[in-house]
Amino acid sequence: MDFLRPASWEEALAAKAEHPTAVPIAGGTDVMVEINFDHRRPEYLLDLNRIGELSEWEVGQENVRLGASVPYSSIMEHLRAELPGLALASHTVASPQIRNRGGVGGNLGTASPAGDAHPALLAADCEVEAESVRGKRLIPIDAFYTGVKRNALEPDELIRAVHIKKADGPQQYSKVGTRNAMVIAVCAFGIALHPETRTVRTGIGSAAPTPIRAREAEEFLNAALEEGGFWENGKIITPSIAQQFATLASGACNPIDDVRGTAKYRRHAVGIMARRTLGWTWEQYRGAGRALEGAA
Amino acid sequence: MTTTPQARNVPAGTPTKITQGSPTKGGIGESTLRPDGTLKVTGEFAYSSDMWHEDMLWGQTLRSTVAHAEIVSIDTSEALATSGVYAVLTYDDLPAEMKNYGLEIQDTPVLAHGRVRHHGEPVALVAADHPETARRAAAKIRIEYRELPVITDEASATAPDAVLVHENRDDHHIGHVPHPNIVHRQPIIRGDADKAAERADVIVTGEYTFGMQDQAFLGPESGLAVPSEDGGVELYVATQWLHSDLKQIAPVLGLPEDKVRMTLSGVGGAFGGREDISMQIHACLLALRTGKPVKIVYNRFESFFGHVHRHPAKLHYEHGATKDGKLTHMKCRIVLDGGAYASASPAVVGNASSLSVGPYRIEDVDIEAIALYTNNPPCGAMRGFGAVQACFAYEAQMDKLAAKLDMDPVEFRQLNAMEQGTLLPTGQPCDSPAPVAELLRRVKARPMPPEQEWLTAGSDGTSVDVRALPGGLSNTTHGEGVVRGVGYAVGLKNVGFSEGFDDYSTARVRMEVINGEPVATVHTAMAEVGQGGVTVHAQIARTELGVNQVTIHPADTRVGSAGSTSASRQTYVTGGAVKNSCEAVREQVLEIGRRKFGTYHPAWATAELLLEGGKVVTDGGEVLADLADVLEDEAIDIELEWRHRPTEAFDLRTGQGNGHVQYSFAAHRAVVEVDTELGLVKVIELACAQDVGKALNPLSVLGQIQGGTLQGMGVAVMEEIIVDPKTAKVRNPSFTDYLLPTILDTPTIPVDVLELADEHAPYGLRGIGEAPTLSSTPAVLAAIRNATGLALDRTPVRPEHLTST
């Protein structure tokens, strides 16, 4: 196994172009586990740790441009206001040690349905900045996940950053694991209210072959909120709307039975999380919500 | 932060005679610190996997990928041809007549012979100059399997056409088992359960299931074998019982025992998982074959296949009671899955049956326990050893009975609690304090933890601390669906090896004067696996010999057996042996003193003499001589065996017999919060009360009780090895999917220690390591039942069980 250590982004792109099978490694929290367990033996490892800009972020007017290697602990510490859903998701990532190493680029690169960041990214809406020696492109998150542990990257492309919409309303994130910390998701749910566009977006993790949005649930809720004038009057969402939203979110799942949980449980739990997180975000939108105590 | 050690409440007990007002520091009863504590916390402790030797080779084990198959062929040629490979061994390379090992029944092949019986069974070994080379070479060994149907439960094991897991059995249980796929069967019949049932106003029955728990000790199996010039081998290894290993290793190597010299190396933990042989024989075989030192280190994945687990069990129970709450009878049938090899199954059966009634007075019982041979992973010793599974079931039964009688579950238990003098179902009287009712009273009397602790007052109103809620940082609830539950349980565990086993230990104690100061050296073969023997032995030597300086010699086989570090027995038995040897040394010291100085003071002949603070003193405190002057350059060196009271085998048909030497009791109250919609559980508090007889090291006692409590909680809410029932393959052999409690899952564990002396035991002490593991699991289950109203007849409880999904 050859270890490639580019000193700059340009060198990294050149190396990836020359060795398209090279596996990029930043925090190493996914890749090293796979290597240690001998699940894969890549011909080349492409170390991105010398490229400092990957660990930087910029807060713009509309978006946060989040470098692929910005560790989860930094997101929790510095981007709680701009990216509240992703900050909550970051809290649930493994242990403090892993949160100090791992970043969103790794979650996207691995594209496991269980990656903790995905539901928050889907709900917030974002674009993945992918680049190769051929040029740069922005891949909408909705088009990024293409299959089980597969994504829309070309073999010569690397993830440079993610352009995530700054929160224009409350966001929430819930994850079920059978332990109270340091656990792989049995299933997860992210929700973001977008008052500017009067839409709600969602994300579901570990309950389908890829991270997905609960589109029917979103469409139903958007219509119901519009129809009832909820965005203006700020009334409490009726239980029947919340329940229908939950049922549709549950229905969006296409889960499997595995050692971590049953398909039936995953559908059930996604419904519960959808109902609860909608309640929390809506209460916050109405100005009545309880704050979450910072816990890390 | 979450485990809050509480002040020890020391009740009025009857401590045995202890040296009064000893000026010797660090004696028994003091919380002296572990010598390896700081090293372990700072990462500097040398574990067995950290050893290194010049010219060392690395051993690798190739394990079966299927659970049950004939081995059609093994082709090692490609592996052998790999550069850097020094040896590839299969069954055909075993050097001696003896090819098997085993704790009691030698049914486990060192390397598979013609057939594999469980997923992960060792088939071949490789030694190479680099671990990666060894691993790759092992992957090049070609094995052709012809798969056989798998036996996975009682029905498939005892079916008329069932394949025999072991053909031609000749062990001493085969004569009394109803089927060759049953390792051992122990009935216990006392009184007339059917007749007594007629007196019952209420009868409850239950079918309970206990999942397979892993010991999950720190420091996976590892060791280093170094060939020696005399044709023997030096083995440095992390184990639980050096001499038991030695008995199994030497015959397979074709060596006399004195040519296999074993030294204990750094152990992370054991919990029963190191009682069986793992890499010991393999490393020695490779070392003797290559003439080079060979190190084998399992990773965590391999460790799940490298040791036995806790027996999963199916338990059927029937209890009856009169309407005023007195138990009338109990019938039970306990089926333990022993997996492919016997390991400790026979003894686990003995424990499960003889302790199946729990700490209750029931005169009419009909009990049967069996262990199966299956193609599931082998199961054997784990903290609690058969008593854990039974306690889970009988405590669920106690709650069912109390509910049916509309009685308080604690009062119902107290009404039926055994006491000193109570006859157990084996006919054996309990001849030391049995404060069962008192332990329950103490946990019940504790104030309840405050409600809704997740609500914290903030500057802008109330906020939620998700860490205090089910789901924790996963942020699944802010209080929605959360219901509190409270549950109680109490358990009964034996201490020491039972059923007539010659359970002795050996201690060699040396006393001499070095640089003008008396120094004691304690040498035993006791495996320090974290239980605190190294601390306790030094404390005993200080108390008995009046010295400040004690050296604990590394544990090895140059001294006699210390027995196993298991069954809560080491402080009792090896502690007893150290005390006994110290007393013998003291007698010799006094003898020398009398000879030298007897004429100068009449007290040498008339008073009871003690060694304290480096001096010989009378029991009145008068100093007679300095130890340095008594000993001068003489060294006293004594090695003695010590035994606890003998026990008897259980009768094979009636189960009667004085099978146990001592009992240990603990009670728990669990307070849980359950998210009833998502099926997630947060254990808020697990209060424990335990009788320890005498706390030789109060801090260690607290650590044992808190650790045992947490290990019991683990198997209540998350810990389980999941075996596919169709293939008998292990589905979660990693810490990614075998979940252990983290600090955020750890409840507050207030501990209430009683010290009621057992007059038969050294210092009145009681073995304590296992009892808290028993009652913690059923207490948590009872609390979850209390919160949810669900029956919950299996452990661990998964979210699916709480949400019917």
UniProtKB/TrEMBL annotation, chain A:
<dbReference type="Pfam" id="PF03450">
    <property type="entry name" value="CO_deh_flav_C"/>
</dbReference>
<keyword id="KW-0285">Flavoprotein</keyword>
<dbReference type="InterPro" id="IPR002346">
    <property type="entry name" value="Mopterin_DH_FAD-bd"/>
</dbReference>
<dbReference type="GO" id="GO:0071949">
    <property type="term" value="F:FAD binding"/>
</dbReference>
<dbReference type="GO" id="GO:0016491">
    <property type="term" value="F:oxidoreductase activity"/>
</dbReference>
<keyword id="KW-0560">Oxidoreductase</keyword>
<dbReference type="InterPro" id="IPR016166">
    <property type="entry name" value="FAD-bd_PCMH"/>
</dbReference>
<dbReference type="InterPro" id="IPR005107">
    <property type="entry name" value="CO_DH_flav_C"/>
</dbReference>
<protein>
    <submittedName>
        <fullName>Carbon monoxide dehydrogenase</fullName>
    </submittedName>
</protein>
<dbReference type="InterPro" id="IPR051312">
    <property type="entry name" value="Diverse_Substr_Oxidored"/>
</dbReference>
<dbReference type="Pfam" id="PF00941">
    <property type="entry name" value="FAD_binding_5"/>
</dbReference>
<keyword id="KW-0274">FAD</keyword>
<dbReference type="InterPro" id="IPR036318">
    <property type="entry name" value="FAD-bd_PCMH-like_sf"/>
</dbReference>
<dbReference type="InterPro" id="IPR016169">
    <property type="entry name" value="FAD-bd_PCMH_sub2"/>
</dbReference>
<dbReference type="InterPro" id="IPR016167">
    <property type="entry name" value="FAD-bd_PCMH_sub1"/>
</dbReference>
<feature type="domain" description="FAD-binding PCMH-type">
    <location>
        <begin position="1"/>
        <end position="169"/>
    </location>
</feature>
<dbReference type="InterPro" id="IPR036683">
    <property type="entry name" value="CO_DH_flav_C_dom_sf"/>
</dbReference>
TrEMBL record, chain B:
<dbReference type="GO" id="GO:0016491">
    <property type="term" value="F:oxidoreductase activity"/>
</dbReference>
<dbReference type="Pfam" id="PF02738">
    <property type="entry name" value="MoCoBD_1"/>
</dbReference>
<dbReference type="Pfam" id="PF20256">
    <property type="entry name" value="MoCoBD_2"/>
</dbReference>
<dbReference type="InterPro" id="IPR016208">
    <property type="entry name" value="Ald_Oxase/xanthine_DH-like"/>
</dbReference>
<dbReference type="GO" id="GO:0005506">
    <property type="term" value="F:iron ion binding"/>
</dbReference>
<dbReference type="InterPro" id="IPR036856">
    <property type="entry name" value="Ald_Oxase/Xan_DH_a/b_sf"/>
</dbReference>
<feature type="region of interest" description="Disordered">
    <location>
        <begin position="1"/>
        <end position="36"/>
    </location>
</feature>
<protein>
    <submittedName>
        <fullName>Xanthine dehydrogenase subunit D</fullName>
    </submittedName>
</protein>
<dbReference type="InterPro" id="IPR046867">
    <property type="entry name" value="AldOxase/xan_DH_MoCoBD2"/>
</dbReference>
<feature type="domain" description="Aldehyde oxidase/xanthine dehydrogenase a/b hammerhead">
    <location>
        <begin position="42"/>
        <end position="149"/>
    </location>
</feature>
<dbReference type="Pfam" id="PF01315">
    <property type="entry name" value="Ald_Xan_dh_C"/>
</dbReference>
<dbReference type="InterPro" id="IPR037165">
    <property type="entry name" value="AldOxase/xan_DH_Mopterin-bd_sf"/>
</dbReference>
<dbReference type="InterPro" id="IPR008274">
    <property type="entry name" value="AldOxase/xan_DH_MoCoBD1"/>
</dbReference>
<dbReference type="InterPro" id="IPR000674">
    <property type="entry name" value="Ald_Oxase/Xan_DH_a/b"/>
</dbReference>
